[in-house]
Each structure stands twice: as structure tokens, then as C-alpha cells.
Design brief:
The chain is an all-alpha fold. It is 83% helix and 0% strand. The longest helix is centred in the middle third of the chain and has 43 residues. It is elongated and about 120 Å long. The protein starts with a helix and ends with a helix.
């Protein structure tokens, strides 16, 4: 009985192995029936990438990389300076047109409605003045180190920002005066 069971067990294993091997073979042949040989070769070309050669860096290669990085950095710096100059010129033009169009001494943004509002606006103006002074100082240091072809432009930027700074200081003085006027009625009762 054991030999019959062993024989049957072996027969089942052989049949299962044969069926397992036949299934991938039939699946492969079914997929190949739909593909023409020319298309199959193209797919194989796409699937097998070419072997890449190992790049050995020499001093010459590094020199070109360094010079291209340096030129990129110079371009970025030049673009940033041009953008800053354009922004400053636009702001100066806006402020020039705004000051020439408005005959009042204090612009409408510098008008405070209460003592607390005046304090907030005074603090903002003081921070603005500090930032403008820092920008002028940075630009002055840049002017001292700049090549001769950029000096005129930088000097013009400094002059424009000094004018803006003077106008901001006038706004601050106007706000401080408004604050004093707002405090007077509150102290009378």
C-alpha cells in the first residue's frame, strides 16, 4: 500500500510540476503572438540601457566647472543688483509722483485716529527709518568697493534713498505732533 501511495504521490508531484512549467511558457507564447518581431526588438532596446562609462575628473574638467560656477554666481549677483535698482527706482518714482501730487505736509497714511494708533504708526516709522539707514549704509559700502562703471548708479541709489529717508523722518515728526494733539483732549477732563 505504501508503494501505491508513494507512486500516486510522485505522479501528482510530476503532474503539478509539468502544469507549473507549462503555465509560464503558455503565457509567454500568448504575449508573443500579439507582438511582431520588429516591435519586440524595439522593446528590448529600450529595456537594456547602455552601460555608462565611469567619468574620471581631471584638473582641466574641474577648471571648467569652477569657471562656469563663478560666471553663474556673477550673473545671479548682477541680476539681483539690477532687480534691486529697478525696484528702488520704481519706489522713488512713485514717491516723487505722490509727493508732487499731494500738497499736504503729511500723507494720508500718516494720519492717526487715536493715541494708540499714533504709537503703532510711530513705531512702524521708526523701524522703517532704521531699515532705510541700514540699506543706505550697505549701499555706501558697496559703492566704496564698486568698479567705476557702477559707481554712478550706486550714488544715484544712495541719493534717492536719502531723499526717501528725509521724507520718512518728516512723516515721523508729523505723527509725533498728531500724538501730542490727541493726548491734549484726553488730559483735560
Amino acid at each position: 500500500m505504501k508503494t501505491k501511495n508513494g507512486f500516486l504521490f510522485s505522479l501528482i508531484l510530476v503532474c503539478g510540476a509539468a502544469a507549473g512549467l507549462a503555465t509560464p511558457a503558455s503565457a509567454q507564447s500568448d504575449s508573443q503572438k500579439n507582438v511582431t518581431p520588429a516591435k519586440y526588438r524595439k522593446v528590448n532596446k529600450k529595456q537594456a540601457p547602455a552601460a555608462k562609462t565611469h567619468k574620471v575628473w581631471t584638473d582641466e574638467d574641474l577648471a571648467t566647472v569652477r569657471t562656469s560656477a563663478d560666471s553663474y554666481a556673477e550673473k545671479e549677483t548682477a541680476q539681483a543688483q539690477a532687480a534691486t535698482a529697478a525696484t528702488q527706482q520704481a519706489e522713488a518714482a512713485k514717491q516723487t509722483s505722490a509727493t508732487s501730487a499731494k500738497p499736504s505736509k503729511t500723507p494720508p497714511l500718516a494720519h492717526a485716529n487715536s493715541v494708540d494708533d499714533a504709537d503703532k504708526k510711530i513705531a512702524w516709522e521708526e523701524r522703517d527709518i532704521q531699515a532705510q539707514e541700514e540699506f543706505i549704509d550697505r549701499t555706501q559700502r558697496e559703492l566704496d568697493q564698486a568698479p567705476s562703471d557702477q559707481r554712478e548708479r550706486l550714488q544715484k541709489v544712495i541719493d534717492e534713498n536719502k531723499q526717501i529717508l528725509a521724507e520718512t523722518r518728516k512723516e515721523l515728526a508729523g505723527l509725533q505732533e498728531q500724538r501730542k494733539q490727541l493726548e491734549k483732549p484726553a488730559s483735560r477732563p
